[in-house]
Structure formats: structure tokens, C-alpha cells
């Protein structure tokens, strides 16, 4: 049982964290902090939080665990605002999609209290935002990556891990640098591509006609372009170096495919498609095996 959880940003990620902890009976009091009075009032109305803090000082009083679930560019400011009120027994974590920049911001804001900050990233989401998007089962079977710091006490890392485990998440650990390289490839680049494709079509003179005939394939490929532009702007800039490397690699792949298409090299095109299909099938099979529910107990 976590006595008091404070959540900065009670939207999809923070709100779902709150709902899951409450559903698991793993939390006493949940306090919300946010920049939008309307959003915080809605979180209170929906029962996601028990209280909306009138100030950061009030929110932090007696807090056991603090989750920062705001766009990554706000992390440094939020940490600086809570640093003067960070009590010795409080552990702070985050849900940001980049980690190296967050760690740097935390070191600058917290100074000798850096050991109380355990960086994290739940690998789950939807393309909707705000308190109304929060759902109780968002994290069930999903990974949460922690990137602990040398200064972190094992008990503090365990507290954060236990909270996410109570939400149904599976805990993994990476270094901050490895985390950012991995997610530049499998998360940040796909978002950039989806946004770019939809923006390109939207700017064509016959966009209405094109969207009229876009069907399930287009919808599936571009679903993530419905995500928060502010959040993904911040993620893109925060992980700029790794994302540029992945983008360059992808552009080289497109250049090669264009050359195959221009020369009518069907065998080369099919080879790329076939390799991609097989890789995706192996990935889906692995994901399904990892997320399969445990067998039912048939013992009488």
C-alpha cells in the first residue's frame, strides 16, 4: 500500500496509473497537480484523484511516491518546483519517453537529492489525451522500463517497480542511453513518419478526395498521428541525435526502394517486403506469447 501518490499531469498516462493503482487497492490517497484547472476539475469529477492540490508544497507534504506524467520538456520545471518540498522519504519517478534529457534535467533540478529520482517509461498509450482518456487496464501486460541511477537506493527502485507491477506492468531495466537508442527506432521514428504522411496528404490540393478513400490500412498506419503534437514535439527534440540517425537510415532504405521501383526490379522489392513480413510475424508471435494470460487452474 502506497499511502499518498502525487501525479503531475492527470491525463492518459497519469490518470491510467491512478485508476490502476486504485483498482489494485495499492494506494491510499491520490493527489493531482496540473496546469489546466479544467482538466484537474475533470479528473476530480471522474474520481481519478481524491484531491487537487492548491500548491506544489501542499501536494508534496507526506507524499510517498510522485509520478511526473507531463510532456518531457516540462520535467525540469516540475522537478525544480517540487525540489524545495521533497521530503527524505519521498520517491519521484516519471513516465517520459526519453531518458537522457530527463536525467540531465533531474540532476540540475534536484542536486544532492538526485538519488530520490528513479527514471521510468511505461510502454503503453493511446492516441487520445486528457483525463477522459484514462483507463484502468492500460498497463496490463505492457512493459515499463526503468533506467535507475547509480545514486538510487535499491528500495526506492523497488518502490517504483512495485507501483507499476500493481498496475499490471512487466518491469524491464535499461541504461538511459540504451533506452533512447531503442525507442528512437521503434517508437519515435514511427510517430515522425505517421505525422509526416498525414501532413503531406492534408496539404495536397485534393486532400478531401484522398481522405475519402483512405481505408483500414491507412488508418492503422497513421493511428499514432492522432497523438498529442506537443508531447511528440518534445520527444522528437529531446531525442534529436538518436532520431536523426534512425531517420537517415530509413531515408537510405527509401532511396534504395525507390531505385528498385524505378528500375522495375520486382525481385529486390519482394525481397525487402518478404524480410519485413517475416520479421513482423516473428515479433507478433513473440508479443502474443509474452502477453498471453496464464493458464486457468483446473484443479478441483
- Structural class estimated from helices and strands: alpha/beta
> What proportion strand?
5-15%
Q: Mean of the pLDDT scores? A: 94
CATH class of the largest domain: Alpha Beta
CATH-scheme architecture of the largest domain: 3-Layer(aba) Sandwich
Number of domains: 2
The DSSP helix count reads: 12
Low-confidence stretches: none
Rg, rounded, reads 21 Å
Order of helices and strands: EHEHEHEHEHEEEHEHHHHHH
Distance between the termini: 32 Å
CATH topology type of the largest domain? Rossmann fold
Assembly type: single chain
- Principal-axis shape: globular
Could you give me the name of the CATH homologous superfamily of the largest domain? NAD(P)-binding Rossmann-like Domain
- What's the number of extended β-strand segments? 9
Strand order of the largest sheet: 3-2-1-4-5-6
Helix content: 40-55%
Q: Mind describing the biggest β-sheet?
A: 6 strands, parallel
Q: Your description of this structure?
A:
- By secondary structure, the chain is of the alpha/beta class.
- The chain has two domains: 173 residues, Rossmann fold; 113 residues, 6-phosphogluconate dehydrogenase C-terminal like domain (6-phosphogluconate dehydrogenase C-terminal fold, Orthogonal Bundle).
- The strands form two sheets. Strands 3-2-1-4-5-6 form a six-stranded parallel sheet. Strands 7-8-9 form a three-stranded mixed sheet, with helices on one face.
- The radius of gyration is 21 Å and the shape is globular.
- The relative contact order is 0.11.
Outline:
By secondary structure, the chain is α/β, with parallel strands linked by helices. 52% of the residues lie in helices and 12% in strands. Helix 4 links the parallel strand 4 and strand 5.
Amino acid at each position: 500500500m502506497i499511502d499518498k501518490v502525487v501525479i503531475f499531469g492527470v491525463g492518459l498516462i497519469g490518470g491510467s496509473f491512478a485508476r490502476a493503482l486504485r483498482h489494485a487497492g495499492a494506494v491510499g490517497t491520490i493527489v493531482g497537480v496540473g496546469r489546466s484547472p479544467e482538466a484537474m476539475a475533470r479528473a476530480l469529477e471522474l474520481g481519478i484523484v481524491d484531491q487537487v492540490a492548491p500548491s506544489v508544497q501542499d501536494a508534496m507534504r507526506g507524499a510517498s511516491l510522485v509520478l511526473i506524467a507531463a510532456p518531457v520538456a516540462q520535467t525540469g520545471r516540475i522537478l525544480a518546483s517540487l525540489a524545495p518540498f521533497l521530503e527524505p522519504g519521498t520517491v519521484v519517478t516519471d513516465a517520459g519517453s526519453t531518458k537522457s534529457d530527463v536525467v540531465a534535467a533531474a540532476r540540475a533540478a534536484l542536486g544532492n537529492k538526485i538519488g530520490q529520482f528513479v527514471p521510468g517509461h511505461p510502454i503503453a498509450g493511446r492516441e487520445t489525451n486528457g483525463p477522459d482518456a484514462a483507463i484502468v487496464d492500460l498497463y496490463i501486460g505492457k512493459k515499463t522500463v526503468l533506467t535507475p541511477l547509480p545514486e538510487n537506493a535499491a528500495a526506492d527502485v523497488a518502490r517504483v517497480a512495485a507501483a507499476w507491477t500493481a498496475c499490471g506492468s512487466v518491469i524491464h531495466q535499461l541504461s538511459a542511453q540504451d533506452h533512447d537508442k531503442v525507442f528512437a527506432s521503434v517508437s519515435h521514428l514511427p510517430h515522425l513518419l505517421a505525422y509526416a504522411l498525414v501532413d503531406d496528404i492534408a496539404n495536397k490540393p485534393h486532400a478531401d478526395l484522398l481522405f475519402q478513400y483512405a481505408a483500414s490500412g491507412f488508418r492503422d498506419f497513421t493511428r499514432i498521428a492522432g497523438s498529442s503534437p506537443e508531447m511528440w514535439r518534445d520527444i522528437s527534440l529531446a531525442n534529436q541525435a538518436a532520431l536523426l540517425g534512425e531517420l537517415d537510415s530509413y531515408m537510405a532504405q527509401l532511396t534504395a526502394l525507390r531505385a528498385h521501383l524505378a528500375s522495375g526490379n520486382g525481385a529486390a522489392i519482394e525481397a525487402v517486403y518478404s524480410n519485413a513480413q517475416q520479421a513482423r510475424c516473428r515479433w507478433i508471435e513473440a508479443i502474443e506469447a509474452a502477453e498471453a494470460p496464464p493458464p486457468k487452474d483446473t484443479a478441483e
